[in-house]
Amino acid sequence: MARHKEFDTTEVLTKAMEYFWRHGYDGSSMNELVQHVGIKAQSLYNAFGGKRDLYLAALKLYVNQSTVIATLEQTPSGKQAIIKVFHDLLSSLAQPEHRAKGCFMVNTCVELAPHDAEIADFVEKESKRVEDAYLLALSRAKEQGELADRHQDLRALARYLNNAQSGLIVTAKSVSDPAVLEDIIRVTLSIFD
């Protein structure tokens, strides 16, 4: 007879995500993860598999919790959607804990994607989803007269915004002056001038 799980899967996965996010894949041992999530090692292995499987499940949870795509797709004004994404990001990065952690997806891209084809593929597909959401917001902005006619290649502009978002997160880890991030956002959003 199968034993009943005595833990909340989402809660355990959230704790694992937070640990990986803070310490990285290579900086996280299974013993540390077991201690952090608060369940027995065998239960963790039975529920999620090994460390890599747990990491991938945590990364998928992170993606599902992100609000960037929803903001870009659902805000009526394309311009306001993009502005909101960058202003929300700036607010988040103003908190030292968030600035130090960065973005779990960006961290994964840097740490694991170069030597793990499956994770690289996952990161690329998720990045494309964000790019497509930027494209949708830019298309609305263009239709609503919020974007200058000089911007014809909206796909390239969506790629630029996606990269600016990731770059801002990386830059925030190494600067203490919030004016630096504000300048980057001001220049990024000058696409609407």
TrEMBL record:
HTH tetR-type domain segment(s): 6-66
UniProt-recorded Gene Ontology molecular function terms: DNA binding
Keyword field: DNA-binding, Transcription, Transcription regulation
InterPro entries named among the record's database cross-references: Homeodomain-like_sf (IPR009057), HTH_TetR (IPR001647), Tet_transcr_reg_TetR-rel_C_sf (IPR036271), TetR_C (IPR011075)
Any Pfam family matching the protein: TetR_C_13
DNA-binding residues: 29-48
The keyword Coiled coil belongs to this UniProt entry's keyword annotation: no
UniProt keyword annotation of DNA-binding present: yes
SUPFAM superfamilies linked: Homeodomain-like (SSF46689), Tetracyclin repressor-like, C-terminal domain (SSF48498)
Protein name, UniProt field: HTH tetR-type domain-containing protein
